[in-house]
Amino acid sequence: MHSPLPSFxxxxxxxxxxxxxxxxxxxxxxxxxxxxxMAGRKRLVTPAGELxxxxxxxxxxxxxxxxxxxxxxxxxxxxxxxxxSFAPGLLERFHxxxxxxxxxxxxxxxxxxxxxxxxxxxxxxxxQALKPPQGEASSTASAAMCEHRTLEVLLLLAERGxxxxxxxxxxxxxxxxxxxxxxxxxxxxxxxxxxxxxxxASSLQRRLAEESASFSQCMRxxxxxxxxALLQDPELQVSEVAARCGYDSHSRFSxxxxxxxxxxxxxxxP
Length: 270
What we know:
Layout lengths: L10 E8 L3 E8 L2 E8 L1 E6 L2 E6 L3 E4 L3 E8 L6 E8 L1 H10 L13 E3 L3 H14 L12 H16 L13 H10 L8 H7 L4 H10 L4 H17 L6 H7 L5 H12 L9
Antiparallel strand pairs: 1-8, 2-7, 3-6, 3-8, 4-5, 4-7, 6-9
Helix pairs in contact: 2-3, 4-7, 5-6
């Protein structure tokens, strides 16, 4: 019997699918991402204006930017997009390996590129490697293969002048979010998370406070942002999404989700 392959945590693949029009206000993009709209239309809104992407369009969004996002299905159909997300560690390795792009200005806001044959091939190979098969918790591809294929996507984009910024030192709030995000369903405690960073609970609490953040706030953000992503997978029931995000009570989950996003989880399940 083969032992399970280790999960590749520096990139992920997701299909976003919804039969209902929905808007997510002030959505924080935690990782650099590339999205490919397959059906319907995506609108990104900021105080500076609005960008629209229709079926066949490709969009790039840099990490730690905030948007109002609107996904609109076509008449009688479903909105669908495929998304690859890249964690800072992968970006750091990309820049170490491909130093020739050091002088290329990094993507600062949303950018786009053409879904030509080269893009489709590269993106599809990476998506296939990263996306877990139905019913599985992780990809069946090796970590080495996942990294190879995701770096290929980043290289293709860089050769088109589209480069995500090198990784910088993360804030303490972002470090907490990334740790908790590996298991959002777990009953994380402040002391446990602090120990992972070789700090006392009071030291971690103080460092978060210096960033105007708190442990409970970070936990809540991770769980609800994870829930939003999972709810856009039509294969999962709302109750399963709640459980995967650490909510034992369906009513508490629904109330917290509605407070954050302005509509109930069931809105995405017509």
